[in-house]
Amino acid sequence: MELNAANTAVVYDSTADLPDGPAEHANWRMVPLSVHVGDRTFRDYVDLPAEEFYRLLAATPATPTTSQPSPGAFGEVYGELLERYDHVVSLHLSGELSGTVESARLGAASYGERVTVVDTRAVAVLLGLTVIGVQRLLDDGTDVAGVERWLERFRRHAGVVFSVETLEYLRRGGRIGAARALVGGLLSVRPILAVEDGEVRPVRRVRGGRKALEALVEELGARTPAGHGLRAIVAHAAAADRAEELAAAIRAARPEVVLEPVTTIGAVVGAHAGPGTVGVAFAPDPLPD
Question: How many CB atoms lie within 10 A of CB 70?
Fold first, then answer.
């Protein structure tokens, strides 16, 4: 069966940091995770815009926690979409970091082969870049096997690197992974991190915000082939100026880059990364074999 933008819907969770996607693509739906601050619960991007979350975070001593959508939330979305579309491709953050993809699978169980649920092994704007890439496949026409082959290549060649002001939020949320080795004695040292094999991993440490941005550009260059097309997204947690500075530095270093609009890091990812986080997701375009 051919999958295209007319007969196939794309579902993703809110950690993709594409809150405006459904308004821009009729076949997209976003299912929000939730963030809990004290005794209050908010749906990511629905009840709580990113900017408001960081103001709330600064004003409360409570440590925010997050939770995945229920299987029922996914099942309801799939049911509504399958009244109008023949197929749904559902793309979600790494199962190493969240149970969201398992909720999606449970929600899809009654729809059989009409719903394809994918653990992308990504998070944040790397997941966003995955969603954008799958939509481009649909625009050209593909099938389920073609989507799966593309996703496998994307996992091999795409990446995300980011800098946080402190590892404390990752530590509190239990998402620190191998980056635990960097905890302690950071002071003005900024850790550079990556998501690899679905987990947060340390890359290196630098001193100061300026060096952190330079290191992100260097890592992007080291992880993508020179002289090849490149697509990227820059995202930030309450650090818009630094994000724009990073985007400008990427354009200067890689003039061939196609940069998606700078986006925010929403409440759910931001609860674990913390304010001041800046990062970039990237993939060669077209993807190598």
Answer: 14
**What's the sign of the alpha-carbon dihedral 3, 8, 12, 17?**
positive
Topology at the third CATH level for domain 8-33+68-156 = Rossmann fold (3.40.50)
Per-residue burial over 160-191, b = 16 or more CB atoms within 10 Å of its CB, e = otherwise: bbbbbbbbebbeebebbbebeebeeebeeebb
Is 60 exceeded by the pLDDT of residue 36? yes
The whole model's pTM is what? 0.92
Q: Which residue has the tokens 């559902």?
A: 90
Which architecture characterizes domain 158-284 according to CATH? Answer: 2-Layer Sandwich (3.30)
N residues, the chain: 289
Instruction: Using CA atoms of 6, 124, 174, 68 in order, give the dihedral in degrees to the nearest 10.
Output: -30
What 168-172 contacts at long range (C-beta under 8 Å, 24+ apart), as own/partner pairs, is 168/274, 169/271, 169/272, 169/273, 169/274, 170/200, 170/272, 170/273, 170/274, 172/63
**pLDDT at residue 197, as a whole number:** 86
User: pLDDT tens across 217-256, in order?
Assistant: 999 999 999 889 999 999 999 999 999 999 999 999 999 9
